[in-house]
UniProtKB/TrEMBL annotation:
Protein name: DeoR family transcriptional regulator
Nucleus listed as a keyword: no
Lineage: Bacteria, Pseudomonadati, Pseudomonadota, Gammaproteobacteria, Lysobacterales
Signal sequence range: none
Keywords: DNA-binding, Repressor, Transcription, Transcription regulation
Domain HTH deoR-type: 5-60
UniProt organism field: Luteibacter sahnii
Domain of life: Bacteria
Length: 255
């Protein structure tokens, strides 16, 4: 399902993710629209897997499953674009890099297309096809099991190939960030690939927008001590700033 959300619908999803459960009348009051308008929004978002509807209200999807890939592509599009451009500016021509799975990383791939002479290893078939359009790039695709929902590749073969390289930059995404700086994701296999990328990169760049802060997910990737630079779209909460400082993680807020 190709979802194209307006600003109200994006803000609505963010509220539900933050609050857990919200009533229809409360949402209508917050956005100063009729309950019928909110109900139409909620039907669209529920069909796209972004929320769960109940009598009188809505909740976020279960924390053990991620939102449908096609739906995630439409969320925070402007924010992802700003983050992607900031990451691309930090990558010099002639660099070697890993890029793993995620909708933000696919936007990073598009932002890198104007570069020259990049050597890219990826387990994301969408990124591999995209970057192969630049004739100066060398693109290597990790082997493994292909997931139909997002064309990501995971498994032992994926990890084994990653371990054969040592690259300049590893670009990773994440599904959730705890207040103590713990980085979380939904898929154990995907996390193992990301951990291998971290271990075999000279610098690790995390691209994650503000909606990932406080979002629940089940699998622990690590913490900010594994990340050299975090690229995001808003200033993080004050509680996270000492965590970043202690970890030595540079913060880049893309304006």
């Amino acid at each position: 399902m190709d979802l194209r959300l307006n600003r109200r619908q994006e803000a609505l999803v963010a509220i539900v993710q933050r609050e857990g459960f919200v009533g229809v009348d409360e949402l209508a009051s917050h956005f100063d629209v009729a309950p019928q308008t909110i109900r139409r929004d909620l039907n669209l978002l529920a069909d796209g897997g972004l929320i769960r509807r109940y009598h009188g209200g809505v909740s976020a999807p279960s924390s053990i499953e991620n939102v449908a890939y096609a739906a995630r592509q439409s969320l925070q599009a402007d924010e992802k674009g700003r983050i992607a451009k900031a990451i691309a500016r930090a990558i010099p021509d002639g660099s070697s890099l890993f890029i793993n799975l995620g909708t933000t990383n696919e936007v990073v791939g598009r932002a890198l297309l104007e570069h020259r002479d990049l050597r890219v290893i990826t387990n994301n078939l969408n990124i591999a096809i995209l970057l192969s359009d630049n004739p100066t790039f060398e693109v290597i695709v990790a082997g493994g099991v292909v997931r139909g929902r997002d064309h990501g590749v995971t498994g032992e073969a994926t990890i084994e190939l990653i371990r054969q390289f040592k690259v300049d930059y590893g670009i990773i995404g994440i599904s959730g960030i705890e207040p103590d700086g713990t980085l979380l994701d939904f898929d154990f296999h995907e996390v193992r690939v990301a951990q291998a990328i971290i271990d075999h990169s000279r610098q690790v760049f995390l691209g994650a927008d503000h909606t990932k802060i406080g979002r629940n997910a089940m699998v622990r990737l690590g913490d900010f001590s594994r990340v050299n630079a975090w690229f995001t779209d808003r200033q993080p909460p004050d509680a996270l700033m000492p965590v970043l400082e202690a970890a030595g993680t540079e913060l880049h807020v893309a304006g």
